[in-house]
Amino acid sequence: MPIIRPVRREDHAGWLPLWAGYNAFYERVGPTALDPAITAMTWARFFDPYEPVFALVAEQEGQLLGLTHFLYHRSTTAIGPNCYLQDLFTTPEARGQGVGRALIEAVCARAKNDGAARVYWQTHETNAAGRLLYDKVAKHLGFIVYTRVL
């Protein structure tokens, strides 16, 4: 089982392909790819003490197998912060080996320790493999997400 730990600055070369894989899964490649400035800012936020954005990685034998990014925010329905697990990705070779679950559990443990009232996330309805895991570790409350690009 891999070690789940906070990302370090020296992980950039190993994190970048995971980030690219995550974005490719959501079809952010080619003409719809993220601006490189977004990737650079995302990476920088993990190390900025004033940002509520964090990253964990799964490492085994010196190789990064997965990542998760999460952030804290206020809510009108709780005093403590909520934790939004924004990104979760594992290498194809690591899937089905408990890496995704370990990353989710690590975020939940960290959020609980930090006083969060809940951890939540969203995924695309076509992410059948991810949803099999999510249905085992969390409860789908039936909410539908709407987005308006500005």
Would you write up a description of this structure?
- This protein has four helices and five strands.
- It is of the alpha+beta class.
- Strands 1-2-3-4-5 form a five-stranded mixed β-sheet, with helices on both faces.
Task: Give the SSE layout.
Layout: E1 3-6, H1 12-25, H2 36-45, E2 53-60, E3 63-73, E4 82-90, H3 99-113, E5 118-120, H4 128-137
Parallel strand pairs: 4-5
Antiparallel strand pairs: 1-2, 2-3, 3-4
Enumerate how many helices there are, as a single number: 4
Number of strands: 5
CATH classification, class level: Alpha Beta
Report the biggest beta sheet as strand number plus sense, adding barrel if it closes: 5 strands, mixed
Q: What is the averaged pLDDT score? A: 95
Please state the second-level CATH architecture.
Answer: 3-Layer(aba) Sandwich
Q: Going across the major beta sheet, what is the strand order?
A: 1-2-3-4-5
Distance between the ends: 42 Å
Shape: globular
* Uncertain ranges: none
Based on secondary structure, the structural category is alpha+beta
CATH homologous superfamily - what is it? Gcn5-related N-acetyltransferase (GNAT)
Strand and helix order: EHHEEEHEH
How many separate domains make up the residues?
Answer: 1
What would you report as the Rg, rounded to the nearest angstrom?
A: 15 Å
Percent range of helical residues: 25-40%
